[in-house]
Write a structure and sequence with these properties.
With 849 residues, the protein is an alpha/beta fold. The protein has 34 helices and 27 strands.
Length: 849
């Protein structure tokens, strides 16, 4: 039946008309699919009504089934399960939904269930589920851990996964896959045997819908999400792609003087006076900083530069107290703030309509992330987004040009789905075991229906069952690893202590132990990582949540502080804050440098060429000319290697432009391969553009051997020999052990110290390595090192590109603009920030002469 002919559509269409709005074609297409009982994935630009495409579709379907009493029918059970990656999104989404329901007169309740939900609210939901429940992957698994959880989902019509691109390629996304497979598997459907029955059933059981703004591999993303609906056959489902182009105005902030010898991190703050007028001329501005530590610094510097912003500027990141973050979000909604300095905590979904302008400080490292952040401004259909790009060193201006080109071509990164995450599966089976238990044959079929585990063998499945019930080969003598009991074929956890510890451990986000920061006089400030607090002495001053604080003492895993009047404070650094350059942005960056290397220069999108030069490339002309004169400016198909001798020794600088993780692996690989030719030792440094090898003797890399050194031969073996893969796997195993329940992080308020967790995980790693070499969790640790930390696939692609292209080796007589940032990075550990800046200034003056 055509959706336009249904009573539900007519009611919704009248509502749109009253609000002087017209539904987009992609929204109406989604409504048709929902009325038809189909599943699918919606892709549309940020701020174009993706939420309404699924939520309103659920309302239309409900009205169609209850045309006579849709306004008065209440206590309908859970109709729509809305999964979101961020807790911060839940409140905003719930508010938007409640407005629609109130205006339509539906007696639906909206519930939120996440880590911030009060116990009383959770108990209320247990007695009577709301029609719409907004939750996170972790809280959804906690629902699956409840007794008789099947009853919760019996009337469920639609599962909607918001911001699916953000979950795809992460273990949280795997949690979503498993949860969908369980809900579908518990729907008490008749036995299904043929392909035709599977396809028919997929259209009459509950629908699964993904919502995505920016993803390069759209069809694969849909396949991963909908895989449990189509077990054993090609995944179907609807692909809804909005034919809308969001106008995005990108404006680079050009420094008054372009440094010919750039270095990372220092330039941004010096351009702060160029930000102040932008803030004053906009209704509200979001200023995105890549790390929490730098966001603290920027907040303080903006207040110092423009004291009139006091009370009108705020700070928002994941370590600030939840209450303060909520206040900032509300103030943004109401237009009370002129500016908010933020991190990725405000990347997604939240609809802040007063935001007119976005400023990106430093490289966003990826096209999709930049697009997402740009969409925070003009977050309404038809409105243009305005984003300024502020470089933290001169060469980042090339990235601004690369971003423009990539966005004009819609050259968005893909998110690769994870395969065979056995730690998540171990945790998931324990979750089922503390609910009503499970029968392996039933759950095996459910798990195999997911994309993540479709390649899992029966042998691996049986190993997992033995591991959770007996501890596996190496740990079977220890009762604490025999968590699941087997009675008449039912796998179940009966111990209340084990069940409670498991509930506290559900989730796949493993971070260093966080310590609450609280005023001695009362009131929470936020949280900070334990390792940072452990370095402080009483009386030390540090910055958190935009406040200068004096450390007093640690009491009951809480850092007690008081306000500090000290003008000099330590800015916290959080582990893992540096993102590598994405493959797509690296590709466009090499193209832009190729344009600059060509005589005509200018903008050249995929295969095309033009005489027009972009402002970002034009202002860097003196830097590029100096690079050409001293060495070489590489074209797109060239790899530049520079041999330079300084007082420190003999350097090799290489510039693949593939991101710091690939460069770290390549530096280790090259060092290993050279060391097989002659006894030699190296130190190395890397950034997103290239890497450095430094030795006390000349490095034998020349035209006769360079292609062999950058070859694909024995790549996997050479990588494992070039780095301490066992030590890297041991660090990875810590997270796997926590997710898999081998290591307990502690009870709330009594968290076990990070070093103790690492010590326990290291001990387990050593035991398994010696006595259970085929342990799947051990194998997973090594795989994650190769795939995630070493980015082997991307390294392999880079080496293929180098073999097909040309390697240029030069011998500059002094440091070049390209190698200078790497040289400075290698000096950072030996100097304070003030000493480093002074040293760099002297180096720049000497090189300038």
């Amino acid at each position: 039946m055509e959706v336009q002919n249904t009573i539900g559509y007519k009611i919704i269409n009248n509502w749109f008309h009253e609000k002087e709005m017209v539904p987009f074609a992609f929204q109406q297409e989604t409504w048709q699919h929902i009325v038809d009982g189909k599943s699918g994935l919606v892709n549309a630009p940020t701020g174009c009504g993706k939420t309404f495409s699924v939520f309103v579709g659920a309302i239309i379907d409900f009205i169609n089934h209850h045309p006579e009493n849709y306004k008065t029918k209440s206590k309908n059970g859970l109709q729509l399960l809305w999964v979101t990656p961020l807790r911060a999104l839940a409140k905003d989404i719930g508010r938007a939904m409640e407005e629609v329901l109130a205006e339509l007169g539906l007696d639906w309740k909206i519930g939120i269930r996440n880590g911030d939900t009060e116990l009383s609210e959770r108990q209320k939901q247990k007695r009577q589920m709301p029609e719409v429940l907004i939750t996170t992957p972790e809280s959804l698994h906690l629902l699956l851990a409840q007794k008789n959880c099947t009853e919760i989902f019996q009337r469920l019509k639609i599962i909607a996964v918001d911001e699916w691109h953000e979950l795809l390629g992460s273990k949280r996304g795997v949690q979503v896959e498993l949860a969908i497979s369980r809900i579908i598997g518990r729907r008490q459907l008749p036995a299904i045997s043929s392909k035709e029955e599977i396809l028919a059933t997929a259209n009459r059981q509950l629908s699964v819908w993904g919502i995505s703004a920016t993803v390069g591999n759209f069809e694969e993303a849909k396949e991963v999400l909908l895989s449990p609906l189509f077990p054993g056959i090609a995944v179907g489902g609807a692909s809804v792609i909005a034919d809308l182009r969001k106008n995005i105005d990108i404006e680079p902030i050009i420094p008054d003087e372009i440094e010919k010898y750039p270095w990372s991190g220092h330039l941004g703050i010096k351009l702060i006076n160029k930000i102040i007028p932008i803030i004053h001329n906009s209704r509200t501005t979001l200023i995105f900083i890549n790390t929490r530590g730098m966001s603290e610094t920027w907040y303080q510097k903006l207040l110092s530069a423009s004291p009139d912003l006091a009370g009108a500027i705020a700070l928002h990141h994941g370590s600030i107290d939840q209450g303060l973050r909520s206040w900032v979000e509300e103030a943004l909604h109401e237009g009370k703030l002129k500016a908010v300095v933020c991190t990725a905590s405000l990347d997604l979904g939240v609809d802040f309509r007063p935001v007119e302008t976005v400023v990106q400080v430093g490289s966003p490292k990826g096209v999709a992330r930049f697009l997402q952040r740009a969409g925070r401004s003009g977050h309404q259909p038809g409105e243009a987004s305005k984003i300024y790009f502020l470089p933290t060193h001169s060469l980042e201006l090339v990235e601004a040009a690369a971003l423009k080109a990539a966005m004009s071509l819609n050259f968005i990164e893909s998110r690769q789905p994870l395969i065979l995450c056995f730690d998540v599966l171990v945790q998931y089976l324990s979750t089922l075991a503390i609910s009503d238990g499970f029968y392996p044959d039933e759950v095996f079929l459910e798990v195999k229906s997911t994309h993540c585990y479709k390649l899992m063998t029966e042998e691996e499945w049986n190993w997992i069952l033995h591991f959770i019930s007996q501890g596996g080969i190496a740990l079977q003598q220890y009762d604490e690893f025999k968590k699941v009991e087997v009675v008449d074929g039912l796998f179940k956890i009966n111990s209340r202590k084990v069940a409670m510890r498991h509930r506290l451990s559900i989730g796949t986000i493993v971070s260093d132990a966080m310590m609450k920061v609280k005023f001695v006089s009362g009131g929470y400030v936020g949280v900070i990582e334990e390792y940072f607090i452990s370095r402080l002495s009483p009386g030390d001053a540090f910055t958190l949540a935009g406040r200068n604080l004096e450390f007093v003492m640690i009491k009951e895993m809480t850092a007690l502080v008081r306000k500090s009047i000290s003008k000099k404070t330590i800015v916290p650094s959080w582990q893992g804050g540096r993102m590598p350059l994405s493959a797509n942005l690296g590709f466009m960056l090499r193209r832009k440098l190729g344009d600059a290397a060509d005589a005509d220069g200018g903008f050249r999108p995929l295969g095309a060429s033009t005489k027009k030069r972009e402002i970002e490339i034009e202002v860097l002309k003196p830097l590029f000319e100096l690079q050409k004169n001293l060495s070489h400016l590489p074209r797109e198909n060239e790899l530049l290697i520079e041999h330079i001798e300084t007082g420190d020794g003999y350097h090799i600088f290489a510039y693949p432009f593939e991101g710091r993780l690939v460069h770290e692996a390549m530096a280790a690989l090259l060092a290993y391969r050279i060391s097989r030719m002659m006894p030699i030792t190296f130190s190395f440094a890397m950034n997103d553009y290239g890497f450095e090898l430094l030795s006390d003797q000349p490095i034998p890399v020349d035209d006769s051997n360079v292609y062999e050194l950058f070859s694909l031969g024995n790549l996997s073996e050479d990588i494992q020999r070039s780095v301490n893969s066992a030590e890297m796997a041991k660090r990875k195993f810590r997270d796997i052990a926590v997710i898999g329940g081998l290591v307990f992080q502690g009870y709330p308020g009594e968290y076990i110290k990070t070093r103790h967790i690492q010590s326990s995980a290291s001990l387990l790693f050593n035991v398994l390595s010696e006595y259970d070499k085929n342990n799947l969790l051990l194998r997973q640790a090594y795989n994650e090192v190769m795939e995630q930390q070493m980015e082997e696939a991307r390294l392999r692609n880079m080496l293929e590109r180098v073999q097909k292209g040309k390697i240029i080796i030069t011998f500059p007589q002094r440091l070049t603009p390209f190698c200078f940032p790497l040289k400075v990075d290698s000096m950072r550990e030996n100097f304070s920030s003030e000493q480093l800046e002074d040293r760099v200034k002297r180096m720049q003056m000497q090189l300038g002469r």
